[in-house]
Amino acid sequence: MEWQACVQKAAHFDFYHTWFYHSLDTTGEPILVLYTQGDVFIAFPFIKRNIPETEYCDFSCVYGYTGPISNREFDQLDESILNNFHDEFLALLRGYKAISVFSRLHCFFNQLPLLDKFDGIYENGKAVVIDLRLPLDELRSRYQTRVLEKIKAMRRKGYYVKEGKSAEDVW
């Protein structure tokens, strides 16, 4: 299955999962690990990076929230699919001689049921969610004091925010 078709058939996906986004990373080769069993697929986008002067590599993610995607909800996948994916993924890593795997999980998708079978998964912080539909003064009232101080310092240095409405505003 082609990368983009796979992403579009996923139950949940983000721009971070696309080949285009991965192709922007020049540290290695974009690779989509694809596991299929029956009509179910699990796809895991990575950047495969060769380790200089060795036969080894590592798999990393592009900046952003990637993690695996599937055409099914992960918490509804059959146990045999989870086990088989685990075994096949480890075999693939051994075949590539990959020494490590790093991926940030997407903060809005429940990807943990698929990855519970793996060791080395760590919670490393929380995502900040801001409701941009709220009035600006209400949003500003929620800023932490240290954030307000940094904003004031940037203003004193001449920085400002301007709403861009044309291509010329961006460049």
Structure, explained:
The structure is a single chain. Strands 1, 2, 3, 4 and 5 form a 5-stranded mixed β-sheet that branches. The chain has a domain at 3-115. The protein has helices at 3-9, 19-23, 79-96, 112-115, 136-141, 145-156, 167-170; strands spanning 29-37, 40-50, 57-60, 69-70, 98-101. The model has no long low-confidence stretch (mean pLDDT 89). The longest helix is centred in the middle third of the chain and has 18 residues, at 79-96. Strand 2 (40-50) and strand 3 form a beta hairpin. The protein starts with a helix and ends with a helix. It has 7 helices and 5 strands; from the N terminus they run ααββββαβαααα. The chain is an alpha+beta fold.
Q: Kindly, what is the distance between the CA atoms of the first and last residues, rounded to a whole number of angstroms?
A: 38 Å
Helix-residue proportion: 25-40%
**What's the story with the biggest beta sheet?**
5 strands, mixed
What structural class is derived from the secondary structure elements?
alpha+beta
**Overall form:** globular
Report the sheet-strand fraction. Answer: 15-25%
Radius of gyration computed on alpha carbons: 20 Å
How many beta-strand elements?
A: 5
| Mean pLDDT across every amino acid position | 89
Which H/E pattern describes the elements?
HHEEEEHEHHHH
Unreliable runs: none
SSE layout and pairings?
Layout: H1 3-9, H2 19-23, E1 29-37, E2 40-50, E3 57-60, E4 69-70, H3 79-96, E5 98-101, H4 112-115, H5 136-141, H6 145-156, H7 167-170
Parallel strand pairs: 3-5
Antiparallel strand pairs: 1-2, 2-3, 2-4
